[in-house]
């Protein structure tokens, strides 16, 4: 099953008359790797937002759609805890342990706090 990123890429290929192999070649990866990314078996590499945007000359709106598709397709998240305080580490670890148990109201409150601290964007 395709992720949101996979759906975006498939549409991009159709719009450009390309096959999966063509896009994989442009991204300098194998077709099987690109397929694994599109189906969520692998995370989307961090540099692909910029790389795809440049290769396909995406406008700002399409690049934003790509960014959200990538974020919503990630299967795991890596957090660098280097140079963080013990309190920050404890916060990250507590959230990682408990986030699946949070109810919708708690998730909304946390998201609201994060948006407030980040100028409305999370």
Secondary structural class: mainly alpha
Q: Which H/E pattern describes the elements? A: HHHHHHH
Main beta-sheet annotation:
none
Instruction: Return the CATH class of the largest domain.
Output: Mainly Alpha
Total number of β-strand segments?
Answer: 0
The CATH homology group name of the largest domain: lambda repressor-like DNA-binding domains
Features:
single chain, 122 residues, mainly alpha, 434 Repressor (Amino-terminal Domain), 2 domains, 7 helices
Task: Please tell me about this protein's structure.
With 122 residues, the protein is mostly helical. It has two domains: 4-73, Orthogonal Bundle (434 Repressor (Amino-terminal Domain)); 86-117, no CATH class. 63% of the residues lie in helices and 0% in strands. The chain contains seven helices and no strands. The protein has helices at residues 4-15, 20-27, 31-38, 48-55, 60-73, 86-98, 104-117. Helix 1 packs antiparallel against helix 5 and helix 2 (20-27) crosses helix 3. The protein is elongated and about 50 Å long. It starts with a helix and ends in a 5-residue tail after the last helix. The model has no long low-confidence stretch (mean pLDDT 93).
Question: Helices, strands, pairings?
Answer:
Blueprint (H helix, E strand, L loop, with lengths): L3 H12 L4 H8 L3 H8 L9 H8 L4 H14 L12 H13 L5 H14 L5
């Amino acid at each position: 099953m395709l992720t949101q990123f996979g759906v975006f890429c498939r549409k991009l290929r159709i719009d450009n008359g390309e096959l999966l192999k063509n896009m994989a070649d442009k991204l300098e990866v194998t077709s099987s790797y690109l397929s694994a990314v599109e189906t969520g078996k692998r995370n989307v590499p961090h540099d692909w937002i910029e790389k795809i945007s440049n290769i396909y000359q995406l406008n700002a709106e399409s690049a934003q759609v790509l960014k959200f598709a990538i974020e919503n397709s990630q299967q795991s998240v890596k957090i660098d805890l280097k140079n963080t305080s013990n309190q920050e580490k404890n916060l990250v670890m507590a959230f990682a342990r408990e986030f699946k148990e949070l109810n919708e109201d708690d998730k909304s409150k946390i998201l609201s706090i994060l948006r407030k601290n980040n100028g409305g964007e999370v």
